[in-house]
Specification:
This protein is of the alpha/beta class and 277 residues long. The chain has 9 helices and 12 strands. The longest helix is centred in the N-terminal third of the chain and has 35 residues.
Length: 277
């Protein structure tokens, strides 16, 4: 009996140690963050108006979240991977093979059930903005607009490898493909619109608002595409799935930023109207 009792006690001790190891990381990680005095926030490195060259909406948001937690911002700007699964792996739960990352939190992550299901190592939460694609035109070169056909035969700017380029290339049997002018970024396409290089641009609404700033020479309109969600797509943030306490603190901080009106001010600084989900 004594041997059996010792064996059970031994197994119990091992089990308690294993449970302690499982339960410790979330608290330990938060304590590590607090001791460092910084919140490491990952943002995309060429994604105006949200983040570019250390400035943008997401950069300011990261700074505001850090301050709410009593920390300083440590910005980790990174190039987008082949897909979102790569970004979540590199920036949230594992780190990049080149040696940088992971961060404590990644911003501008789509709130999507299939993405969450494919990445159980992370928690995607706290939706803070809904993005949509819009068409903006030069009202002088395209004075009347009653649908996408109004820009047929006109020069249309789009960003390479973008949603805008994808939908226009295939729309109406490829009717607009010969009219497209490809730019390296949406911002570059919009600058091309301002200079007269193109007559219209299909881009994210936030990009249009940021670059054109209510310039009366241009008008932004909604265009429905069958292959795009009419209501757009919503973005939030992501932490490691076991960082429960950090996630709660960040959610509380985000709620406070909305309640105080600070989120509206952050977006307005860049000429963008926030669309809260």
């Amino acid at each position: 009996m004594r041997r059996g009792g010792q064996r059970v006690a031994g197994f119990a001790g091992i089990l308690l140690c294993m449970l302690a190891l499982v339960a410790t990381p979330a608290h330990a990680d938060l304590e590590k963050i607090r001791k460092s005095g910084t919140l490491k926030v990952a943002v995309y490195d060429d994604f105006a108006p949200f983040s570019k060259l250390g400035k943008g909406i997401d950069v300011d948001l990261g700074d505001a979240l850090a301050k709410k937690l009593g920390l300083k911002l440590s910005l980790l700007s990174f190039p987008a991977g082949e897909n979102l699964n790569d970004d979540l792996r590199n920036m949230v739960w594992k780190g990049h093979y080149l040696g940088y990352g992971p961060a404590d939190v990644l911003l501008h992550v789509p709130i999507d059930l299939s993405l969450s299901a494919a990445n159980p190592q992370v928690k995607i939460f706290s939706p803070y903005h809904t993005e949509t694609v819009r068409l903006v035109r030069n009202v002088q070169s395209v004075p009347k607009f009653d649908g996408l056909s109004s820009v047929a035969g006109k020069r249309i700017g789009v960003e390479k490898i973008s949603i805008g380029a994808m939908v226009l290339l295939g729309e109406d049997g490829g009717r607009y493909s010969k009219d497209l002018k490809i730019f390296p970024t949406g911002v570059a396409a919009l600058e091309g619109l301002k200079s007269g290089e193109v007559d219209a641009v299909l881009a994210n609404r936030s990009e249009i608002e940021n670059v054109l700033r209510d310039d009366p020479r241009f008008e932004m309109r909604e265009v429905a595409f069958q292959r795009l969600p009419r209501k757009g797509w919503t973005v939030g943030m992501a932490v490691r799935s076991d960082d429960v306490e950090l996630g709660k603190l960040l959610q509380d901080a985000m709620d406070e930023l909305f309640a105080s009106g600070e989120m509206i001010k952050i977006f307005a600084k860049y000429g963008v109207q926030i669309v809260r989900p």
